[in-house]
């Protein structure tokens, strides 16, 4: 049996799955001030009368790091950045405790200027005096040679709880995004560590010793231990769970819109022939342009619990949420209350819902039912408008899916897939208003948790080879090996595949799920000096694609 838990802004969904179907499904309110007990409550209810030893796998999808970034609720951290000649790294400042230092490595991985050890020691004292506990260190060409980062860490490590290094973030050459990503990892680490350690400890006390996996932004999973080195990967794991839960029901050879309508927001994403779209460089959230690999998704602040107002005789829905719908004891009218007035829902306080919508109706000079219908239509309109704006933006640039780069491809969805508790009501109204085929995903209210539970482990490896220098490296994986002048394309790909499979296994992948490996980037350059060939430079990136684990196909039927 396996467990999937999706921690949303309003509800936490949890499922217990056997390979022949769904054993249990639980939905509990999310207490954002106490996410630990929220998740623990889900586990406790799921495991009632179940032997914990039967559980083979646990996957958690969380909004923890996303919320910390959005709300700027992150501890101050230190950043030490070296660049050498070129653009001033001060341009990419991440906060108050940001220091640009001497020392540089060039694009071939050769040292051009040494680290100033006295400068580093002085900065360490300043950071420690300021109460900083976590520090990030980034060099411009650290992916070619991380020696400066490693040296700086060795010098300051004893003064701080943890030091994050830029070369371990990604094999991509993108200095500004590497700084932002290293800063994000450093800033959310404390929150991430305390939360998941508490979860792990509680589960062990319950006798649950199965491996705990975290859903990443790219729709794959990694082990709890792996996430300690890269907590930023859990950003947007909630929307990723939605996409993974919808993939099995998407049409083949067609484009589809996926809408996950929650209490706080609606997450919007797209599938092309059952494959999710990908952010090819990395996600952007607020001021942070990162190297965090992610599925392409966006959110609109409209959900079942969004606050409804009338401003200048205009109906305004969201983006804020002040609690549940009035039908469930909340303070303000919401779209969920409108569904009660329209007779579509009846499992709450009908009179309270009527009272809230009545106030809106009075301001609009409409009957209660007319106001409720207008609210419902406007919700659909806001969500679909955002989706079509996203399509226009996507069609103005190259399209990347997790499988391939689609040159000149234009997305033209013919189907909408809906998830979330109010999905059946919205599906009917959207079809009526827009005449687009609209389906509700089976187990729509807990489809996110199912998507998380069934997601397989994903990872990527970047490899760089220089035959003139006689070395092949993947510094992100702490790998370096001597090579000869005859080192070829095939040798590079074989090494990349070997490293990728080793990384996948250590990240918690099932050996049976390693058949979806592909090369997503390959470059080759000749080194010529004085009109004479001196060697070759190779770069490649291989990935284990997102997908669903094997053996649980009956759950999806």
Structural summary, described in words:
This protein has 557 residues and is of the alpha+beta class. Among the domains are: 250-445, Nucleotidyltransferase, domain 5, CATH 3.30.420; 459-548, no CATH class. Helices cover 31% and strands 28% of the residues. The strands form nine sheets. It has a six-stranded mixed sheet with strand order 3-2-1-4-11-12, with helices on both faces. Strands 13, 14, 15, 20, 25 and 26 form a six-stranded mixed sheet that branches. Strand 28 and strand 29 form a beta hairpin. The longest helix is centred in the middle third of the chain and has 31 residues, at 175-205.
What is this structure's SSE topology?
Layout: E1 2-7, E2 11-18, E3 21-29, H1 35-46, E4 57-61, H2 64-70, E5 78-82, E6 98-101, E7 104-105, E8 111-113, H3 117-129, E9 134-139, H4 147-156, E10 162-165, H5 175-205, E11 212-215, E12 221-223, H6 224-227, H7 237-246, E13 255-261, E14 266-272, E15 275-276, E16 278-279, E17 284-285, E18 288-289, E19 294-295, E20 297-300, E21 306-311, E22 314-321, H8 335-341, H9 350-364, H10 368-394, E23 399-400, E24 405-406, E25 415-419, H11 423-434, E26 437-440, H12 447-454, E27 459-466, E28 471-474, E29 479-482, H13 489-506, E30 517-529, E31 532-544
Parallel strand pairs: 1-4, 4-11, 5-6, 5-9, 9-10, 13-25, 25-26
Antiparallel strand pairs: 1-2, 2-3, 7-8, 11-12, 13-14, 14-15, 14-20, 16-19, 17-18, 21-22, 23-24, 27-28, 27-31, 28-29, 30-31
Helix pairs in contact: 1-5, 2-5, 7-12, 8-9, 8-10, 9-10, 10-11
């Amino acid at each position: 049996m396996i467990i999937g838990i999706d921690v949303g802004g309003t509800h936490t969904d949890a499922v217990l799955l056997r390979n022949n179907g769904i054993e249990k499904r639980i939905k509990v309110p999310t207490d954002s001030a106490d996410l630990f007990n929220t998740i623990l409550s889900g586990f406790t209810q799921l495991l009632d009368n179940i032997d914990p030893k039967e559980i083979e796998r646990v996957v958690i999808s969380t909004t923890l790091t996303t919320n910390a970034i959005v709300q700027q609720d992150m501890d101050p951290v230190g950043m030490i950045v070296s660049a050498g000649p070129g653009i001033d790294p001060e341009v990419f400042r991440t906060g108050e405790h940001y220091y640009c230092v001497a020392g540089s490595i060039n694009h071939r991985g050769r040292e051009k200027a040494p680290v100033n050890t006295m400068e580093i020691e002085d900065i360490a004292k300043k950071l420690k005096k300021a109460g900083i506990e976590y520090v990030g260190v980034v060099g411009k060409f650290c992916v070619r040679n991380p020696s400066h980062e490693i040296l700086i860490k060795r010098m300051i490590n004893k003064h701080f709880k943890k030091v994050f290094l830029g070369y371990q973030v990604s094999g991509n050459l993108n200095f500004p995004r590497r700084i932002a990503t290293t800063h994000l990892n450093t800033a959310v680490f404390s929150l991430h560590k305390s939360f998941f350690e508490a979860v792990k400890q509680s589960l062990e006390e319950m006798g649950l010793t199965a491996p705990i996996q975290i859903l990443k932004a790219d729709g794959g999973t990694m082990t709890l231990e792996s996430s300690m080195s890269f907590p930023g990967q859990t950003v947007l794991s909630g929307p990723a769970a939605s996409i993974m839960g919808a993939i099995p029901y998407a049409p083949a050879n067609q484009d589809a819109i996926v809408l996950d309508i929650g209490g706080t927001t609606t997450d919007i994403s797209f599938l092309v022939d059952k494959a999710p779209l990908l952010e090819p460089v990395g996600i952007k959230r607020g001021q942070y342009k990162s190297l965090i690999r992610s599925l392409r998704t966006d959110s609109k602040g409209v959900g079942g619990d969004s606050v409804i107002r009338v401003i200048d005789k205009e109906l305004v829905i969201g983006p804020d949420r002040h609690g549940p719908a009035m039908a469930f004891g909340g303070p303000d009218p919401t779209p969920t209350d409108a569904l009660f007035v329209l007779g579509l829902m009846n499992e709450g306080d009908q009179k309270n819902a009527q009272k809230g919508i009545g106030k809106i109706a009075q301001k609009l000079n409409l009957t209660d039912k007319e106001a409720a219908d207008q609210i419902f239509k406007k919700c659909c309109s806001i969500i679909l408008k955002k989706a079509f704006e996203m399509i226009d933006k996507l069609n103005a640039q190259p399209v990347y899916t997790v499988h391939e780069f689609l040159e000149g491809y234009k997305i033209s969805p013919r189907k909408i897939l809906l998830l979330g508790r109010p999905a059946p009501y919205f599906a009917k109204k959207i079809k009526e208003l827009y005449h687009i085929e609209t389906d509700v995903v089976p187990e729509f209210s807990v489809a996110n948790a199912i998507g998380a539970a069934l997601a397989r482990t994903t990872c990527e490896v970047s490899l760089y080879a220089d035959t003139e220098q006689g070395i092949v490296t993947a510094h992100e994986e702490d790998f370096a090996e001597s090579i000869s002048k005859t080192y070829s394309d095939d040798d590079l790909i074989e090494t990349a595949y070997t490293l990728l499979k080793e990384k996948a296994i250590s990240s918690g992948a099932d050996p049976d799920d390693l058949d979806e490996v592909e090369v997503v980037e390959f470059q080759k350059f000749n080194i010529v000096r004085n009109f004479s060939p001196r060697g070759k430079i190779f770069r490649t990136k291989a990935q284990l694609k997102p997908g669903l684990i094997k053996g649980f196909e009956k759950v999806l039927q």
